[in-house]
Amino acid sequence: MTGPLNARLVRAFFCLPLLFGAAAVAGADGGSPSRLVVPAAAGGGASLQAAMLADALVRQTGRPFIIDHRSGLGVEAGTAVVARSSPDGQVLLLATASVAVRAAGAMASAETAVLRRLKPVTRLSTTPLVLAVHPRVPAKTLAELLALARVQGERLQAGAGTAGGLGHLAAAMLLPAASAARISVFRGGGPAVRTLVEGHIDLLFAAAPVVLPQSTAGRLRMLAVTAPSRHAGLARLPLPGGATPGAVTSQWYGLFVPADTPDSMVRDLHEEMRRALRDESLIARFSEHAIEAAGDDAAAFDALLQSEIARYAPLVRRAGMVP
């Protein structure tokens, strides 16, 4: 792939918010639109997942899907918007494993209370987090970065896509306490990766689909992944398990609806999503971006959520992320 083409791909990725409308408009004659609420700024892994899923659902149902990014706080946050929506199956929350990490960190927090007002539908997919550094960072391997962090920890500036989220926890557990305490947090993986590319931070853990195009363009260097991957660009990377035993694993993307949504409607939504996840075009796009389809039913997804909240609770305390 040529340099100019790489540059165009990078610009296209950062312009994803302008492209998302295509999925919503494509099925404009298919009835009233459904909303996929993404609780983060546009341009991150959840945004890309939402765009690909909406495309598949439009082809499958002919119904338009609007992608609604809500990265605000309090009542404007995406989780709160969906929690107070009508339980009619028309407003869906596309969340990530970060909801489990934040719930583990503050069991009585307002966000955890909002999570109780949501009902799981399905886990859509999984992808590794990737540890990426800016090219100016001299470390070429994970071992070299860890050695650098021990010597220059206070000068290394890490970032995280979401405060108290999965990438935040991964960085906090990898780095010395002095550096971990200075992690800059953003309103999504897109802004975090953009800041890393611009050189304002040195490293971060972010979802593979966000990092891969930047690595291909030579704007970032990938050092490790949090879970094995068959993707050619990730298969060679080590796992940081030796440095952070039992820490984070894969990022997942899942759908939630308001808690009062009838179980029969949840089952129908799960079946609709399961059919979409079998779409050959979607599977191909997932593979290109190091994403693996899941499709768990509501009970299995809820069991996963509860087990991850319990598993992450001691790790969040160990990383000093409890408010």
Q: What topology does this entry show?
A:
Layout: H1 3-14, H2 16-19, H3 21-26, E1 34-38, H4 45-61, E2 65-69, H5 78-83, E3 91-96, H6 98-105, H7 110-115, E4 118-133, H8 142-152, E5 158-160, H9 166-174, H10 177-180, E6 184-185, H11 189-197, E7 203-207, H12 208-216, E8 221-225, E9 250-258, H13 263-276, H14 280-288, E10 292-293, H15 298-318
Parallel strand pairs: 1-2, 1-3, 5-6, 5-7
Antiparallel strand pairs: 3-9, 4-7, 4-8, 4-9, 4-10
List keywords for this structure.
D-Maltodextrin-Binding Protein, domain 2; ten-stranded mixed sheet; 15 helices; 323 residues; globular; 2 domains; 18% strand; alpha/beta; disordered N terminus
Task: Describe it.
The chain has 323 residues and is of the alpha/beta class. The chain has 2 domains: 3-127 and 251-317, D-Maltodextrin-Binding Protein, domain 2 (3-Layer(aba) Sandwich); 128-248, 3-Layer(aba) Sandwich (D-Maltodextrin-Binding Protein, domain 2), CATH 3.40.190.10. Helices cover 45% and strands 18% of the residues. Strands 1, 2, 3, 4, 5, 6, 7, 8, 9 and 10 form a 10-stranded mixed β-sheet that branches. β1 (34-38), α4 (45-61) and β2 form a beta-alpha-beta unit. α4 crosses α13, α4 packs antiparallel against α14 and α6 (98-105) crosses α15 (298-318). It is globular, with a radius of gyration of 19 Å. The chain starts with a helix and ends in a 5-residue tail after the last helix.
